[in-house]
Design a protein that fits this description.
The protein is an all-beta fold and 226 residues long. 0% of the residues lie in helices and 65% in strands. The two termini are 46 Å apart.
Length: 226
């Protein structure tokens, strides 16, 4: 796959390309989890999970030897990036979740994740492994049933910064107003990303793809079940 092209100092067109590898293998994972669930009352339940993941043969890349190519014209120099399985490492962390039925018509739920990643390529020159995940994430959800079959749901999300992708942390609020006039019909009005008009959530330049920001949004939905 061709990624980009530019003219070198000697005037020759350079073409960066991502090349496949017939020896590429499936990535390997050994995952270990230990969890505990408790329900101290009929209205409250709590979950706590720890995990450790050991990875091998992770997808990585290394710079190949440049070569000249005459088809298609003009003659150009290919700067290859080759896929391989030289990555390895581990991740570990904690997950917590809670559900609370505050009343018969109002429910709350929330969750938190803490993650640490230690992924490294093999010591071969130029090898690299792609990874980036937030160290901290949490969310809080509220579900409120109002009179006359009206529902009002709100959600608050937090994502920690993606350091390698240079994406700052962000806080997002969504809301939904729903109405069920009769059992098979559901009308909804949804508002997304209420705190800002746009924000980035990821960043990549693979394949020349330009990353766009997530905008504030609103949409209506009609659901009819039969």
């Amino acid at each position: 796959m061709n990624a980009s092209a530019f003219r070198g100092a000697d005037g020759t067109v350079n073409l960066t390309a991502i090349l496949g590898n017939p020896d590429f293998q499936s990535e390997k994972l050994f995952a270990y989890e230990l969890g505990y669930r408790i329900q101290p009352s009929r209205k409250l339940s709590l979950d706590l999970v720890s995990f450790y993941n050991d990875y091998d043969d992770l997808r990585s890349t290394h710079a190949g030897r440049p070569f000249l190519e005459s088809t298609p014209l003009p003659v150009h120099r290919v700067m290859p990036t080759v896929l391989d399985n030289e990555g390895s490492g581990n991740t570990y962390g904690l997950e917590a979740a809670a559900n609370w039925n505050a009343t018969s018509y109002w429910k709350w739920s929330g969750g938190y994740t803490w993650l640490r990643m230690r992924l490294t390529p093999a010591p071969s020159a130029g090898a690299s492994v792609s990874f980036d995940s937030p160290a901290h994430q949490w969310q809080a959800l509220s579900s409120l049933n109002l009179p006359r079959h009206v529902e009002f749901d709100t959600a608050l999300y937090y994502n920690d910064a993606l350091v390698l992708a240079r994406i700052p942390s962000y806080l997002r609020v969504d809301a939904r107003l729903g109405w069920r006039p009769r059992p098979p019909v559901d009308l909804s009005l949804v508002l997304q990303n209420l705190l800002d008009d746009r924000h980035p959530e990821f960043n990549t330049n693979q394949g020349g793809v330009t990353t766009t920001q997530i905008r504030r949004g609103v949409y209506a939905k009609l659901t009819w079940q039969f």
